[in-house]
């Protein structure tokens, strides 16, 4: 069975590959020539929480209307002054048109190609181009990654042994609960199984907190 993975290639940034491994997430980012500038494996213990953050480019601030009028008047004046010299007036208009087309090009690039998406984890943040055709694939991969990390932590750390060090195991269960791997009910059930107590709240006697001895 092939391990879930996500790959993306960018003309300028190179390629990114994300792959599930037995004990963690493999991350590889390579330049256009194929050389790796980031290659690591993040243990599942250090991944959660996992989420996607979408960023849009800020609004393109165009010059105020008064500046456009001033530019237009300047072009008109220079055109009249240079009208006697063949070719210069035409070149001036071509330059002005190129300037306007350039502004339009910058706006379109920022509007349609400047969006990014960040795969945010506890250990690393990976920023990728936000491509509409790959959004569903990335979202599916992220959900599968979250489920894989949860399943791994459950399998490796959610087992309790009443004959072992109780405080250490309680700390581990609370850690899993903090990561939303264990629900509140699961935390209580496993804690009761481990300690033999229905509640872990300290007993009060004469205003003093007393540590209740464990049944086991």
Q: Kindly state the percentage of residues in helix.
A: 40-55%
**CATH fold call of the largest domain:** PH-domain like
N-to-C span: 44 Å
Overall body shape: elongated
Instruction: List unreliable stretches of 5+ residues.
Output: 210-216
Strand order in the sheet with the most strands: 1-2-3-4
| CATH class type of the largest domain | Mainly Beta
Total discrete domains: 3
Number of helices: 5
Q: Mean pLDDT across all residues, rounded?
A: 79
Number of strand elements: 9
Largest sheet: 4 strands, antiparallel
Structural write-up:
- The chain has helices at residues 65-81, 88-113, 135-157, 166-178, 184-195, and strands at residues 5-10, 14-20, 24-30, 36-43, 51-55, 116-120, 125-129, 203-205, 208-210.
- The chain folds into three domains: 5-56 and 115-152, Roll (PH-domain like), CATH 2.30.29; 65-113, no CATH class; 158-210, no CATH class.
- It is an alpha+beta fold.
- The strands form three sheets. A four-stranded antiparallel sheet has the order 1-2-3-4, with helices on one face. The chain has a three-stranded antiparallel sheet with strand order 5-6-7, covered by helices on one side.
- The two termini are 44 Å apart.
- Helix 1 (65-81) packs antiparallel against helix 2 (88-113) and helix 4 (166-178) runs antiparallel to helix 5.
- The protein contains five helices and nine strands.
- Helix content is 42%, strand content 23%.
- Strand 6 (116-120) and strand 7 (125-129) form a beta hairpin.
